[in-house]
Amino acid sequence: MQRQLSFLHYFIILALLALHPRLVEADSFDQPSLITRRMSISSQPKFQNWQLTDQEQQKTITQLILPLNVDFSLSSRTRIQITQSHVRSDLQSKSVGSQPDIERIELLGFGDVKAKLFHVFSDRFLLVGGLSLPTGKKEINREENMVSAALFDQSLDFEVGRLGEGWGFNLGTGYVHSFSNATVSLGANYLYRDSYLKKYLDFMIENPVYDPGQEYSMAVGIDVGKDTIQWRSDAVYTYHTPETLDQKKYFRQGSNLLLDGGLAYIKHRFQVELFGQYLRYWDSKRPDSEGDLDILIYDLNNRWVYGISARYRVGQKTTVFGSISDKQIRTHSDKKFSAIRAYALNLFYRLTPNLAFTSGVKISSGDMTQQVELSGLSLYAALTTGF
Asked: Does the structure show a pLDDT above 90 at 149?
């Protein structure tokens, strides 16, 4: 039962993350859990820095996230997660040639409060509901919007683009069934996002109301293997209803498919995994060359991520995790848009039965459209306590 439920939780979380596929990273670290407690409180501050350099200028984009996560159980079958983040993002350009420098532009504020409810009906069925409360910063000026638009670059992996996105809720279900050496799971999710006013577009349209549309997703997952060799595979298909501005279908965002898999070898304290991920978009035209609507490019490009990761448990308190991955973004005509190599190292340490510390570093480098060189640095540290 424990194996079924833990996999089902992972499956539902994967389906929800697939609604924002730019945030899904195949080399992420799934840290060990504390002993089950009624409540746990954690914070994982994260710093990200990217430099984009071409022949004329060097653009630097940074982001610091200070989150607060609360997870508590109402019963043995029901638990709630609540998250809130304070985010600071900066954009600055320096001249490489004769181009003028751009002063640093800052986007600072709180994000929306996100709440999720998980309820286990049986050993095979789980229901999840989510609610987004409009507490985040929504009214931004034109300069702040330039920072927000830069955060949406597909080649980068910033966690927060917009701070305030208004009301929203989602409903999802998951079903899992185990055979002798295999586990099969199915899931479905519906996401509703309310419309809101984009005041900084008043110069274009009077009272510009933006409707981000709704999303439907279906997912299937298969785990095969015994204790030593294990294979995992997941597929998530997401359908988007039209996004509108001033009640007009200004965008055409098609469906997308996320395929994720890995082959792991596990021996005592050691685990090594070969992993891969493919994200495919269909018919996505988003006309916004000036970045007024938080979008930098016309098309949403396809993405490949593949690599190798290793985990080693040192004693009873310490776990070390490392990975090497390649990310390639290609256009629909299979032309290279960007290629990035990333090295990640993470450490988990259990200070006490109720207190754990996690830290990590990720270094990235590559190029975009064969003209822009990319380099990135990501740091995070987390402290989790349980009651």
From this structure: no
Alpha carbons 121 and 75: distance in angstroms, whole number = 12
Confidence (pLDDT) at 32: 58
Which amino acid does the sequence have at 322?
G
Q: Which of 264, 265, 251, 325 is nearest to 295 (CA)?
A: 251
**Dihedral sign of CA atoms 254, 17, 337, 307 in order:** negative
In a 13 Å sphere around the CA of 36, the CA atoms on its Cβ side amount to 8
Residue with tokens 């979008």: 295
Phi/psi of residue 58, each to 5°? Answer: -120, 120
With contact defined as beta carbons under 8 Å apart, do 38 and 72 qualify? yes
Residues with Cβ < 8 Å from 333, sequence gap 6 or more?
none
DSSP one-letter code for 299: B
Q: How many whole angstroms separate alpha carbon 227 and alpha carbon 268?
A: 10
**pTM beyond cutoff 0.90:** no
Calculate the dihedral angle through the C-alpha atoms of 298, 332, 249, 207, rounding to the nearest 10 degrees: -30
Residue with tokens 């396809």: 302
Confidence of residue 375 (pLDDT cuts 50, 70, 90): very high
Instruction: Give the C-alpha separation, 144 to 203, whole Å.
Output: 16
**Could you tell me whether strands 39-43 and 372-386 are parallel, antiparallel, or unpaired per DSSP bridges?**
antiparallel
Q: For residue 281, how many other CB atoms are within 10 A of its CB? A: 20
**pLDDT digit string, tens, across residues 178-211:** 888 888 889 899 999 887 766 655 555 666 777 8
Phi-psi region of 291 (alpha: psi -120 to 50; beta: other; left: phi over 0): left
Condensed to tens digits (0 to 9), the pLDDT of residues 269-314 reads 899 999 999 998 886 665 544 444 444 445 677 889 999 999 999 9
> Helix, strand, coil shares of the chain as percentages rounded to 5?
10, 60, 35
Cα-flanking dihedrals φ and ψ of residue 370, to 5°? 60, 10
Contact between residue 164 and residue 194 where contact means Cβ atoms under 8 Å apart? no
DSSP label at 93?
Answer: E
Q: Fill in the DSSP letter of residue 147.
A: H
Q: Is the dihedral of CA 128, 6, 10, 113 positive or negative?
A: positive
Count of helix runs (H) and strand runs (E) in the chain: 2, 21
